[in-house]
Design goal:
By secondary structure, the protein is mainly α. It contains eight helices and three strands, in the order H-H-H-H-H-E-E-E-H-H-H. A three-stranded antiparallel sheet has the order 2-1-3, with helices on both faces. It starts with 20 loop residues before the first helix and ends in a 21-residue tail after the last helix. Bound molecules: manganese (III) ion. The site of manganese (III) ion has 7 residues, from helix 1.
C-alpha cells in the first residue's frame, strides 16, 4: 500500500529559533514529501505494494537500493519529526536515570551523541537505539541508514543531512546539534524506551499493523 506523509506533530513555527519555519518548509514540505512520493512511484505494481512501510524497508534492504533509500528516508523523517517538540520540556528523572545507566550520566550521553553526530562523515543520521539485549547505544548511520534493519529499537534520532540545518546554521553542524537539545520531545523518547518491537513506534499516523516485528 502507498506510504503516507503524516502531518507534522508540532506547529511549524514552534521550533524557532532552533529550527526555523523556513527550514521545515523545505525539509518537511519538499525533502520528506519527495521521499514519500518517490517510494510510492517505485513500489506501484510491485510486490512491495502489499507491504507495510517497515516491511518495504526490510525487504528492499540490500536488494533494491532505490526503494530502500527512499522508503527508509521517509520512515526516518517521520521518526525524526516525532523526536521534536516546541514545548521545551525537560527530560524526566526516569529518562535521565536510564541514560545514566548506560552512559555514565545524562550529560555524558548528550556529549557522546553530539560527538558522533558531528563526526559522521557526509550525510546520515545519529541514533540512540536499544539493542537486542536491551542496552542503549549510539549509532551514526550514513545516508538512509536505519536501525530497524539491524533489529534495534530506535529511541531518538537527529537528521544530520546538510538539508536539515543549512538554512539556519549553514555548514555549522556542531551549532545545530547544540540547539537540537532545546527541541527534543522527551515524552516520545521515554515512550520508545519501553518498546520491544518497531510496530507501535510511530503510532496511528503510519500504518504499522504489518508483521514487521524485530
Ligand atoms: Mn532530512
Amino acid at each position: 500500500m502507498a506510504i503516507s506523509l503524516p502531518p507534522l506533530p508540532f506547529d511549524q513555527g514552534s521550533l524557532a529559533p532552533y529550527m526555523s519555519e523556513r527550514t521545515l518548509d523545505f525539509h518537511y514540505g519538499k525533502h520528506h514529501k519527495a521521499y514519500v512520493d518517490k517510494t510510492n512511484e517505485l513500489i506501484r505494481g510491485t510486490s512491495y505494494d502489499s507491504m507495510s512501510h517497515e516491511e518495504i524497508i526490510l525487504a528492499s534492504h540490500g536488494n533494491t537500493p532505490k526503494v530502500f533509500n527512499n522508503s527508509a528516508q521517509a520512515w526516518n523523517h517521520t521518526f525524526f519529526w516525532n523526536c521534536l517538540s516546541g514545548s521545551k520540556r525537560e527530560p524526566s528523572v526516569d529518562i535521565k536515570d536510564r541514560l545514566s545507566e548506560d552512559f555514565g550520566s545524562f550529560d555524558e550521553f548528550k556529549g557522546a551523541f553530539t560527538t558522533q553526530a558531528v563526526a559522521l562523515f557526509g550525510s546520515g543520521w545519529a541514533w540512540l537505539v536499544k539493542d537486542k539485549r536491551g542496552h542503549l547505544k549510539i549509532r551514526a548511520l550514513g545516508n538512509a541508514g536505519t536501525p530497524i534493519c539491524d533489529g534495534e529499537i530506535p529511541i531518538l534520532v537527529c537528521d544530520v543531512w546538510e538539508h536539515a540545518y543549512y538554512l539556519d546554521y549553514q555548514n555549522a553542524r556542531p551549532k545545530f546539534l547544540n540547539n537540537f537539545w532545546n527541541i527534543v520531545n522527551w515524552s516520545f523518547v521515554e515512550s520508545n524506551l519501553n518498546k520491544h518491537s518497531i510496530e507501535s513506534i510511530l503510532g496511528p499516523r503510519e500504518s504499522l499493523s504489518g508483521s514487521a516485528t524485530v
